[in-house]
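User: I've been going back and forth on whether these two constructs are worth ordering. Before I decide, could you fold them both?

Assistant: Sure. I'll take them in the order you sent them. The first construct and its structure tokens:
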Amino acid sequence: MRLYRPKSIRRLLLVGFILVVAPLLAALIHAALSVEHLVAQGRQALFTTVNATRSSQLLVDEITSMERSARQFQVLGDATLLDVYVENHQEFLDTVEQLGNLRLSALQRQRLESISLVESGVHSVITGSPHDAPEVVQALGNFAELSRDAGQMLVDNRKQVKQEVERLVGNGAELQRSLVLQAMALVPGALILIIVFTVLITRPLRQMDRAIRHLGDGDFSRSPDITGPRDLEQLGERLDWMRNRLLEVEQDKTRFLHHISHELKTPLTAVREGSELLAEKVVGTLNAQQSEIAEILRDNSLQLQKLIEDLLDFNVASSKASLLHRENIELDLLIEGVLEDHKVAILARQLRLDVSLRPVQVEGDRSKLQTLVDNLVSNAIKYSPEEGRLRVEQDVQGDRVIIEVADSGPGIPAEERRRVFDAFYQGSSTANGRVRGTGLGLSIAREYVHAHGGSIEVVNRTGQGACLRVVLPIHPEGEGDNA
């Protein structure tokens, strides 16, 4: 279809419809004409054989009538009987003429000429000689030969009727076979054309769907490649224009995050250090209310610092320049270290911690894997209620490591599970904290999981809460720097 590129999908549909229907319509017309021709052949054969049989029967009857009137004339010599004979003779001639106009076989036509010739001689003798002449008596003996030949001609006509019937049956069977073979050839051909045009029509639609999904997933590196009708290719060009615009927006957003994060860290550091000095009473003794305010300032400054670090981590995670510095890591010990870092937060919420870790050594980037586990645990703690349950499991299946972190919080609604890993997306569930998160923790986790060649998803678990599962290869094959 590269030689002919329709300008619109409507024209492509029209071309496909014509190419599929035209052979079927031609076959239908050919079948109708063939059947009509067969019916005409049958009608003509029926007309010929019926008329030939009827005329042959008349010929036999007329020869008998001529013989009877001729013999009566020969015995009685009555001129009236001669007139009857002449009248029968004329009817005989009319019947011979009718038979001569029909489609007879060569044998029948030869037999008819012989009968006509013998009868002509008999007629000449009877009408040209006295009734009691010896040659008349001799001529009357020829009527037996005429009757025998006329009867044989009748038998031949009946055989011809049977042969015509057999020929028509054979032609009908041959036509049936021809139509069946034609259908067997056309139906697969039509199906192949339908499949071809279905592919030609659906391929650009699938390409568009794939391009839109890539844009929806935040993958702006692939240019939409839409091949097909011109209107769909133009739509692909629009999608590519939108991809470039989104890529520019993404780059602007990354630059903004980079600058704003660094700009916020400097004043925030001063606020955090000042609040710590006040809380530690370095500048003087504080009363109870002042101490409480100093604690609030320090706690919120620490949370704000964590949010800014998330922004920086996201900026690094989404950058292609971020490489894996691989080393052999005891993953179970790394997870234990992350849980130890969160011990204070776990005790503050009085969470019941269920930990099941299987010793395993993986190849990966220590800092990125630590950030990955830290974000999962932080997210679970943030959404866990007081005195709730926090479950952390790590198992090995073949050449993969499976990490599951589950909480007993409100859970993640089914309609939000696909989007929770998108950057800056914050679900409908409310976190148990005074400062709302940036929505980057799970997005960073996904980037680091993909960098290690793994996958992350929300899995269904009985009971309340959310469960996040990470699957990592023990020996990832992604690009990076070996430490």
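The second construct, handled the same way:
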Amino acid sequence: MIQTENLSKRYPGGHQALRNVSISIQEGEMVFLTGHSGAGKSTLMKLIGGIERSTSGSVAINGTKLSSLNRSALPYLRRNFGFVFQDHKLLIDRSVFHNVALPLLISGFSKSEITTRVRAALDKVGLLEKEALNPQTLSGGEQQRLCIARAVVNKPAILLADEPTGNLDPGYAADIVAMFRAFNRVGVTVVIATHDPAMIQGLGARVIELKQGELLA
């Protein structure tokens, strides 16, 4: 499903974020990307999701190389993905409901389908009763759950999460991990970047470790 070959990324100014990273992630896997802060985890996630372009090497999703797609085709490819970012990127001038609805509005879903999908996604993360609230009124853990609802509302095949429990207390963090595990159990490919070893323990998932932009294990 996800294949990278000799993937490298150098940013303007000379910072080498990734160097010759080759990995393969199968459909339905749950995989953790680990490593120190600055190891290249976030960069790798952005390259896999087509948010950034590599300097060299390739990323392929279901056999399609991202480098072969023009910019107008990338948004269609991204519909395969759900993204959970480190910073929540929530719209504070819109309600909880409308934050989750945004990806569906962009994709042209009907009003009735949007309502059905958004409420189902909010129900899965325990926020259905707060659909009319402003995201700023939610706790940190609730905001992260809102981000997950927005990420899964379009029923993606691949869920990418970048440090999803970084600012949460252990109780909330465990809840978030349990949600990702539940999505994985129904066939969603889940890739989570984290530098928290406690998050990985007991899950039996594959771990891919980066150090200074290079693949360790």
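Notes on the second construct follow. The beta strands are 2-10, 16-25, 30-34, 56-61, 64-65, 81-84, 158-162, 189-193, 206-211, 214-215. Residues 157 and 188 are 5 Å apart (CA to CA).
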